[in-house]
Design goal:
Number of domains: 1
Number of strands: 9
Strand content: 15-25%
CATH architecture: 3-Layer(aba) Sandwich
Structural class: alpha/beta
Bound molecules: adenosine monophosphate
CATH class: Alpha Beta
Low-confidence stretches: 80-85, 100-106
Number of helices: 8
CATH topology: Rossmann fold
Order of helices and strands: EHEHEHHEEEHEHEHEH
Largest sheet: 9 strands, mixed
Length: about 220
């Protein structure tokens, strides 16, 4: 499966969020999933990529050129160190960056960076062709990406599972607010099935597998009745 992951750029958030991101990367790679994400080296994004690569996973980063110019892209300074805090040593191969033979976890993953012109193209590339979306706690960038996916699903333009990894309960107020919007009839009750909230990285793949594709008649009830 090709899993689109939205997550934070922040290194200042508590380490538990990066731990969860790294664990998710490990689990997705161990399952044979391709991880598609924003291509960043910092915060949960960097931890996610490091985790997937450490398990021999395939990672695709989609990075706007202006972020590459700012050197925000993987591997970044932390991950480029001979043996970094994540225990990863990187090599550049023909297919892009690879976790080298000296990695702590014996990883042999591949990293392919796709450069795009702007944020809009990045969001499209992240989502297009994905088999599921996973959102981790993050800032406004993560929320924007998540809400685009939910909005497209409501409109019958995206049909795959959207799983919220609720580390430290950070998504609970958000899904509570969405439920209030449903109560107030800004959305229909059916729309609450557009997202699933899970507690741990281990719950993510089972939730994806347990969630059927969104109804093909989504547009029939996109507008509140
Ligand atoms: P946020 O959740 O606000 O940290 O934003 C995460 C998302 O914002 C990423 O998926 C990117 O779209 C973008 N972003 C913000 N800062 C960075 C960064 N330093 N490196 C890469 N992407 C970033």
């Amino acid at each position: 499966m090709r899993i689109c992951v939205y997550c934070a750029s922040s290194d200042a958030a508590p380490a538990g969020f990066r731990d969860a991101a790294r664990r998710l990367g490990e689990l997705l790679a161990a399952d044979g999933c391709t991880v598609v994400y924003g291509g960043g080296s910092s915060g949960s994004m960097g931890a996610l990529a490091a985790g997937a690569l450490s398990r021999g996973g395939e990672v695709v980063g989609v990075l706007p050129r202006f972020m590459a110019d700012l050197e925000w892209g993987w591997p970044g300074k932390a991950h480029a160190a001979p043996l970094d805090a994540q225990g990863l040593r990187m090599e550049q191969g023909s297919a892009g960056w690879r976790a080298g033979p000296g990695t702590a976890a014996g990883g042999n993953g591949t990293f392919n960076m796709q450069y795009v012109e702007d944020m809009r193209e990045r969001k499209h590339r992240l989502l297009a062709g994905s088999d599921a979306v996973v959102a981790l706690p993050g800032g406004c960038g993560t929320l924007e990406e998540l809400f685009e996916a939910i909005t497209l699903k409501r409109l019958g333009l995206y049909f795959k599972p959207i799983v919220l990894l609720d580390t430290d309960g950070l998504f609970a107020p958000l899904t509570g607010y969405l439920e209030r919007l449903i109560d107030a009839r800004f959305m229909n009750p059916e729309h609450a099935a557009m997202w699933q909230r899970v507690a741990t990285p281990e719950d993510v793949l089972p939730a994806i597998r347990a969630t059927p594709d969104w109804r093909s008649d989504a547009r029939a009830y996109a507008v509140p009745r």
